Amino acid sequence: MAMATRVMSQSTPLSLACSQRNAPSRGSGTSKRSVKMMCTQLQVSGSRMQGFLGLRGNNVLDTLGRSRQSFGGKVRQAMNVPKGKGSRGVVKAMFERFTEKAIKVIMLAQEEARRLGHNFVGTEQILLGLIGEGTGIAAKVLKSMGINLKDARVEVEKIIGRGSGFVAVEIPFTPRAKRVLELSLEEARQLGHNYIGSEHLLLGLLREGEGVAARVLENLGADPSNIRTQVIRMVGENNEVTANVGGGSGSNKMPTLEEYGTNLTKLAEEGKLDPVVGRQPQIERVVQILGRRTKNNPCLIGEPGVGKTAIAEGLAQRIASGDVPETIEGKKVITLDMGLLVAGTKYRGEFEERLKKLMEEIKQSDEIILFIDEVHTLIGAGAAEGAIDAANILKPALARGELQCIGATTLDEYRKHIEKDPALERRFQPVKVPEPTVDETIQILKGLRERYEIHHKLRYTDESLVAAAQLSYQYISDRFLPDKAIDLIDEAGSRVRLRHAQVPEEARELEKELRQITKEKNEAVRGQDFEKAGTLRDREIELRAEVSAIQAKGKEMSKAESETGEEGPMVTESDIQHIVSSWTGIPVEKVSTDESDRLLKMEETLHKRVIGQDEAVKAISRAIRRARVGLKNPNRPIASFIFSGPTGVGKSELAKALAAYYFGSEEAMIRLDMSEFMERHTVSKLIGSPPGYVGYTEGGQLTEAVRRRPYTVVLFDEIEKAHPDVFNMMLQILEDGRLTDSKGRTVDFKNTLLIMTSNVGSSVIEKGGRRIGFDLDYDEKDSSYNRIKSLVTEELKQYFRPEFLNRLDEMIVFRQLTKLEVKEIADILLQEVFERLKKKEIELQVTERFRERVVDEGYNPSYGARPLRRAIMRLLEDSMAEKMLAREIKEGDSVIVDVDSEGKVTVLNGGSGTPTTSLEEQEDSLPVA
């Protein structure tokens, strides 16, 4: 029965078998089932061996990594060959010698067979696998010959077509493909290599000389002899990582280091690194540490973007130019890619093996300085169950001086990861990398200017570089110099280049018309309307001539600019200002004429929404004008006010009006109701919970809002209700324009306008309110206001601490509203109702009698304008809502609201739009908004 069982093999990841042939398994299970093996023919050194199958269709090579048996033992069991009968030679002759890239080629070949629906792997699938592998010598040579995967697939389908679509679990190799594998082994032996890489597979494919693959190469115009020459040349220059079996390496070079690292010294010699300006003390300190006998491992520590990696590049440039002491003369700075080193290490032992090879190559070379960016990633890298990580593997070599290593990491990561491991920390010597000053940043930008001018094909003015350093320092507080300044000039260059690359507006319109004319002409030709087509053709010729003339004019202008010494477009200070504004939302560009008019008429505009309160409106307008022209203190908020007064007089409304008028919308205002912060423990909500508490990762309500919108109005509503600890926290905001949140990040308040409202002193205002009425003349009113203001100020001093009040720019006392001002507010509130009904296509008018009734019921000096809103809701909105629900008022109606002789509110519906009222009542009515 076993002999009759049809066993199907599966295309298998040989990589797992070959690279992990001796790795212990995490559990086998082969003892619980009988394994029946068979072998398909593959002649290698007199033996036949291909894929060994289990009952479930599993290739034996698939299970090697999971079995505790050695590779040779498993194959002997599968072939039933006694030990010593040649099985070891068979296995080592082929599968143990495959590199990871060669195994990947075989796997890709099997995938290509599946994709095409073929039940076999032939030479054409091996060729597609060689191209698709992408990183090996074979792939590079084929790519240099102009052969790509897409074209090769098309040729293969042309020659052999697609299969039936049903592909068996096991995809066997054709005899010719097996011959290619045999020849690849012979090619490796002839080259003196004890491994089989993708280059050997390609040489075997070329040597076989027949089959579909040869025809594909011929159709794609490739010369086999030329390909062979290129492969042999590249093998001599750049060996792949060897399988490293049978003792001895296949090359005297450093294949592991070349694969997982980048030679910065070589890049410096080729001029591919950006110039490093300054940082001489840090580079000299690094050289000094590298010259030590033991623990010669500097660790660059600094904030992100200050230039830690640039110091390593500066060292490489010094070595390349010979400007270094003899202790490190002639050495190579190699940057290690930890992500690439870890990538693909699926099983325990693979990562450790790679890292040990790397260390051996560095020890043997004695001319390598290893640079590990983000050195904290060593901790935990490659660690699996029962394994050790990269940091512990490197510790002995770091301590003994066998390995010269430069690390780079941020302050937070150093404290979080490396300081927690004292054994690792003592092996690195910290080198602090401070943030450069603005002047140093300007010099760095001037050093980099040429590279960015070449890339963007434009020029940078000196003023633009100075502006990039200064404006980034002033307005972009959450990043560090010189990184943020470099990003500014880079994006400004991109913006200017795109702007100049655009076709002129006139030419764009003509091209749009030209496309339409061409389309109509083609349609006319298809419809055999040749007369119309001829007319359109003439118009097409005219348009093409006009477009050509505009383009020629642009070229002449560019030529004229170049003759006058202007090489292409220029990046100016205004371009830098525009980028800063787009990043932060803070207007740092020069004030335009339109904006000047808006700023000068700011009081007039705010008074359309805030009635009365001239002192408050003027104070806020002055502060905004100071900030916009750049005269405010750069280290403090735009302004800080405390608005004191009775309820309902417009304190919060003024802040909303300012946000809507100047900052874009009411949503631009950050509003905090301080009654939510009455308890001591709630204060932490402003800056975030401390570590260990719930919500620590979410940030504070105040700090996070300002970080996202640094240019805004911050309203602390009813500040007197807050816990006293809130005032302690606000002292540094008012004085220095900054606040540190629970995560240690500094939040910039220098571009915020702080408004605090308070009801402290409202009782004093109410008592003196009779003296501040509208019936007094101007002098009496002003003197009475000053007297009330001094009394309120004294009461504020009793409630708030002196250090808090002393940091405020101004304490503004709001007046009580007079009846005339309440009438103006009533008009504004009624207008809002008109607008809401207008959206429902209902036209509403109110008579003067109704307005008087609303003002009479809504006026209360002690409560301000809030009773007025309730009066409108009760007298107007309620009755309108009832009639709309009863369908007495519907879309398209014209409605008048009046008060009859008995004092009742009446709603008169004109139906089609003509109100049914007398002429006198229509004259008394207000116009619709």
From TrEMBL:
One of its GO terms (cellular component) is chloroplast stroma. PROSITE patterns: CLP_R (PS51903), CLPAB_1 (PS00870), CLPAB_2 (PS00871), PROKAR_LIPOPROTEIN (PS51257), UVR (PS50151). GO terms for molecular function: ATP binding; ATP hydrolysis activity. It is found in: Plastid, Chloroplast membrane. Residues 95-237 form the Clp R domain. Residues 7-32 have a biased composition (Polar residues). Signal peptide: none annotated. Gene3D superfamilies: 1.10.8.60, Clp, N-terminal domain, P-loop containing nucleotide triphosphate hydrolases, UVR domain. Pfam families: AAA, AAA_2, AAA_lid_9, Clp_N, ClpB_D2-small. Residues 511-546 form the UVR domain. This is Clp R domain-containing protein. It comes from Brassica campestris.
